[in-house]
Amino acid sequence: MLSYVLRRLLYAVPIVLGVIAITFLLFNVLQTPQAAATLVLGPKASQQARAEWIKNRGLDKPKSEQFVKHVKNMATFNFGTSWKSGRELNEVFRTGVGPSLMITIPGFLAGLIGGVGLALYQVFVRNSLLDRSITLWAVALMSVPTVVYIIFLQAIGALMLNYFPASGFDWRGLETLKFVALPIIIMAVVNLGSDVRLYRTIFMEEITQDYVRTALAKGLSSGHVLGVHVFKNGLIALITLTVGSLPALITGSLLIENFFGIPGLGNVLVLAIGTGDQPVVMASVYLGSLLYIASLILTDICYALADPRIRLS
Amino acid sequence: MPETPLLEIRDLSINFATENGTVEAVKGISFTVAKGETLAVVGESGSGKSVTGLALTRLLPEPPTIYKSGEILLEGRSVLKMSPRELRNIRGNKIAYIFQEPSTSLNPVFTIRNQIAEAIKLHRPEVRDIDAEVIKYLDLVGLVDPAKRLHDYPHQLSGGMQQRVMIAMALSCQPDLLVADEPTTALDVTIQAQIMDQLRDLKKQVNMSIILITHNFGIISGIADRVAVMFRGKIVEYGDTRTVLSNPQHPYTKALIQCIPQPGQKRERLATIDHAALEATI
Amino acid sequence: MEALFTHWLTQNLLVLAGFSLIAWMLWSASHHERWRRAWLRFRSDRGGIIALVVVGIYLILGALEVLSFPTKSGGTRTVLDLFVGGVPAEKSYSAPLATRLLSEAKPDPVKATHLLGTDALGKDVFVETLKACKTALIIGGLTAAIYIPLGTLFGILAGYFRRRVDDLIQYVYTTLASIPTILLLVAIILVLGKGLGTMSFALGLTAWVGLCRLIRGETLRQAERPYITAARALGQSHWNIITRHILPNVLHLVVINFVLGFSGIVLAESVLSYLGVGTPVGTPSWGNMIDSGRSELSRDPMVWWNLVSATVALFGLVLSLNLVGDSLRRAFDPKRG
C-alpha cells in the first residue's frame, strides 16, 4: 500500500510541472509585462513607473529564467504577494478557506444525505411511478443553469423579501449564517439533482446482483436487504466518489462566491483572472492542481480499503 | 392414511410478462415431495426447472412473474396465498436454497461468519453462542479448519469451499426442504463429486428433503429417490429413480439418458437431442 | 474565408449536409442488431419519445434560422424570419402583451403586440428566444465536432494499446483536468478572441477529457475479451480490430455522452456569458439574455421576461436532452434502469 501511494505521488510530479508550465505559458501569451504593469498601475502610470515595476518583479528577465524561478517558488510554497492588493498570498488563502468551506460543506452534506436517502428509496420502489417522478425531478433540477438559480434566489430572497443580504460577508457569530444561507441553498439544490441520479445508478447496479437473491432466500425483508446488503456494497462506489470530491470543496464554487460577494477561494480566483493578478492566479491554479491530484490518490486508496476483495489480496 | 406430503405442487402454471409478449415458463406441472425424500428435477436450460424451484417461496420478481394457475402447498398451506411476512417466515426456515454460482451468491463485503450468523439470528433467535453454531455447521459441510475461516471473506475461498459455505448457511436454519439449483454446475468435475458426496452424507445425517435441480442425469444416482424430467415447461416423466433410469418411457428421457457418455462405449460422435421432433411428443 | 463561410448558400448546404449526416447515421444504425434492439426498447419509453420530439423541434427551429435566402434589396433573410420576422422593434422595454412602453417618462404606445415583451433594445423577446436556438445548436454542434473525435480517438488508443501510449494520454488529460475549467475557457477565449468558433474550440478542449476517460474504460474492458484475442490470433491488424470490433462496441457510449454532453455545453454558454466571455453581443443567445436579466431584475418596475423566456427555452432543451440521454442509457442496458 505504502509503495503504491509513493508511486502515485511520484507520478504527480510531472503532472504538477505540466500544470505550472501551462498556466505560465497561458499568462505569458495573454499578457506582456507591459500590459501587466498597465493593468496593475493604471493606464495613467508613466513609462518610467511601469519600467521600474517590471524590473522589480523580475519580468524583464528571459522567460526560461523566470520559469525556473517560478517553479522553485511554487515548490516551496513561496507565493509572494498579490499584484493588486499587495497582500501576502498565504494570508489571502488562509482567510479565504473559511468562507468557502462554510458554503461547500453544508451543500455537499445535503447532496450526500439527501441523495443517498432518495436513491435508496427509489430502488425500493423501483420502476414505479414514484421512482420515475423522483428521477424526473432530479433531472429537472439539474437542467436549470446555476446562474439562473443564483439570479432568482437573490432576487426573491434578498431583494423582494429582504430576508437575506444580497451579497457580502462578515464574521458575526451566528449572524454569519444570514450571508451564507442563500449560497448554501443553491449549492444543495445543484448537488441534489446530480447526486440522486448518480447514487440511484450505483444502488440499482447492486440490486441485480446474485447475493440479493440469496439474502431474500434467507428470509430477510426487502428493507433490510436494501439498507444493509445493497447499501454496504454500494458504499464502496459511494465512498470512492465522495472522498474524491472532498479536496474540491476547499476551492469553493467560483460562480456562487462571485455573485454573492463571498470572499472565499473561488472568488479570489475569479477576481484575479479579471484583474490580471498573475501571482494569485498562478498560485491558485497550482494549489488547485495539488488538491485535484490529492483527490485522485485519495480515491484510489479509499477504493482499495473499502472493497475487501482488493484490500485482502 | 398417507401422511400429508411436505410439498405438493398441483397443476402449476407460471408465465412471464416480457416486452416481447407472454412467456409460458411452466405449463401445468404436478409433483410431491415427502419428508426426508429427495426429488431430482432434470432438464435442459429453459425447461422451467429453475423457475419451479424459485417459485416455491415466490422468489421470482413479481412483475413480471404471473402465477397463472395451480397450487403450491407446503404442509398443506398454500404458498401462493401467503402474505409477505408469512413468506419471509418460510424462507430459510422451512425451505432453504443453494444456488449455482457460489462466488456471486455470497455477499462480497460481509465475512462468512456474519452471513451465516445473520440467518441463524433471524430464524433461531434462541441460539446463544452463534460462533460455535457457525463452526458446527461449517464443520458439518466438510470445511477444513472452520474456526480459522470464520472471518474470511467469500473471495478468499475456493469455489468448492464457497459452495460448502452456502450449504452450511442453508442448513443452519434447519429447514425441512433444501432446494439445490444446479449446485455443482459452476464447479470443476472433481469438486462436483466432492460436493455431491457431501450432500449424500448430509441427507443421511439430517433427514431433510431435497429438491435437486440439474441438467445432468449423471449426478443424481445414489441421492435422488425420485426423478421428474422437464421439457419445455412440462413434466414428461416422473417416477422413482431406478425405474426411470433403467426403463425410461418418454422419448425425451431416453434421449437425455443416451447423452450421458458411458466409459467403454465405442462411439464416434456424442449423442444429441432432436428438439424439434420431441416437441411433438409433449 | 470568413465571407465564404457566412454566405447564405454555404450555410444552407451545411444544414442540408447536417441533416443528411443524421439520416445516414440512423440508416446505418438500423442495420446493426444492437441498435435495432435498443431502438425497440427506446420506442416503448413514452417519456423518452416526447423528449426526443422536443429536441427535434429545437433542431428544426435552429435550422430554420440558419437556412436563408437573398432578398431583393440585397440582404438575406432567414426562413425563420418568414414566420416570425416583421415584428417591428420598439424603442425600449415593454412588458409581455403590453400596450405601452415600460418607461415611466415616455410611455408611448407599442407598434405591435409582443408576446413576451421587448428587451432593452426594443427587440421582441419571443423572436429573440427562438433565434437563439440557432446559437445554442451551433455551439453545441461545433463543440461536439471537436470533442467527440478527440475523446473517442484517444480513449480507444489509450485503452487498446495501453502501457506507454496509455501513460502519455493519461498524463495529458490529468494535467488538463487539474486546471480549473473556467480558467482555461477564459484564457483561450481571451487569446483567440470572442466568438462562437473560439467558444466551441475552448469548450471542446475541456470536454474531451470526460469522454476520453469513459471510452478508455470501456475499451480496456472490451480489449480483454476473448474475441479480441481471437481476432489477433487470426492475424488481424490493429486498425481492423479497432474499427471493426472495438469502435462499434463503444459507439453507444459516445452517443449517450454526446446527448448528455450537449446539454452541459448549452448550460456552459450561460456561465461564459456571465463571466463576460460568452457570445458576442449582436448574436441572439440565451446566455446573454440571462446575463442581462441579472441587472434587469433590480429595475423598478422589474423586467423579468427576458430572463424567464431564456431560462424556459434553455431549460426545455437541456431537460429534454437529459431525458433522451437517460432513455438511451436504459435502452442499451435495461438492467441498470
Strand order of the largest sheet of chain C: 1-2
Radius of gyration of chain B, in angstroms, nearest whole number: 19 Å
Chain pair forming the biggest interface = A-C, 45 and 39 residues
How many strands of chain C? 2
| β-strand number of chain B | 10
Order of helices and strands of chain B: EEEHEEHEHHHHHEHEEEHHH
Overall shape of chain C: elongated
Largest sheet of chain C: 2 strands, antiparallel
Mean pLDDT of chain B: 89
Helix content of chain C: over 70%
List segments of chain B where confidence is low: pLDDT < 50 over at least 5 consecutive residues: none
Strand order across the biggest sheet of chain B? 6-7-8-3-9-10
Radius of gyration of CA atoms of chain C, rounded to a whole number: 23 Å
Euclidean distance between termini CA atoms of chain C: 48 Å
In round numbers, the mean pLDDT of chain C is 85
What is the rounded distance between the termini of chain B?
34 Å
Beta fraction of chain B:
15-25%
> What is the top-level CATH class of the domain at 82-87 and 124-332 in chain C?
Mainly Alpha
How would the global form of chain B be characterised?
Answer: globular
Structural class of chain C: mainly alpha
**Per DSSP, what share of the residues of chain C sits in E-state strands of 2 or more residues?**
under 5%
